[in-house]
Amino acid sequence: MTAYTAPDAPAPVLIPSASYSWESGGYDRSLEKTVTAYVPSLPLLSSLRLQWQGEDFRYGHHRRAPALACDPGVSGEGPRALLVDQQALCEWLERERLALLWTVKAEKQVRTERTPVVHAMYGTYLLDGDRIRRAAFTTELFGLSQGVGSGRRE
Predict the structure, then answer these.
(1) CA 83/CA 58 separation, integer angstroms
(2) Cα–Cα distance between 125 and 50 in angstroms, integer?
(3) Dihedral angle sign, alpha carbons of residues 67, 73, 75, 76
(4) Cβ neighbours, 10 Å, residue 67
(5) Within 13 Å, how many C-alpha atoms sit on residue 43's CB side?
């Protein structure tokens, strides 16, 4: 399995999803509207032995097997996201000795007459068994005109 190693990362990082896009128009005019989806990355596809099932970006062990990964947003059944069967994902993480980690950034801009302020929040979350737990959380306030911030960690 191939993993990306960032220069300052404490361990190799494996990205579980990829983004697929095929734009409409173009030279051959083969699509009436653009198609976009989140799909399993190549390391996830090969490690879980997943195959495309021929429609709606669903992936399983073979064409007629239940889908183990899909993007429900493609068919309009939900938001754009890569969904992976929980049991298959947890077994894979344990077998490969990996952890699933999310990083989240949120930002709120408050405009006042005096100074616009940005409230930025950064969180790291970890899949721990069947629960998601917060691993770290930071919040910062920035005055846009001064470029000065104050941070707080939990």
Answers:
(1) 10
(2) 26
(3) positive
(4) 17
(5) 14
Cut 0.85: pTM above it: no
In the chain, the amino acid numbered 12 is P
pLDDT at residue 60 in the model: 92
Residue type at position 118: V
- In order along its 154 residues, the chain shows pLDDT tens digits of 555 556 666 777 788 899 998 887 767 667 778 888 999 999 889 989 999 998 888 999 888 888 999 999 888 877 889 999 989 988 888 888 888 888 889 988 887 777 778 888 899 888 877 788 888 888 888 775 544 444 544 5
- To which residue do tokens 């059944």 refer? 77
CA distance 106 to 54: 36
Asked whether the beta carbons of 41 and 17 are under 8 A apart, the reply is yes
- Whether residue 31 contacts residue 23, with contact meaning beta carbons closer than 8 Å, is answered with yes
Q: Which of 81, 92, 149, 82 is nearest to 119 (CA)?
A: 149
The helix (H) or strand (E) run that includes residue 138 is: strand 131-143
Closest-CA residue to 120 (of 132, 103, 134, 135) = 103
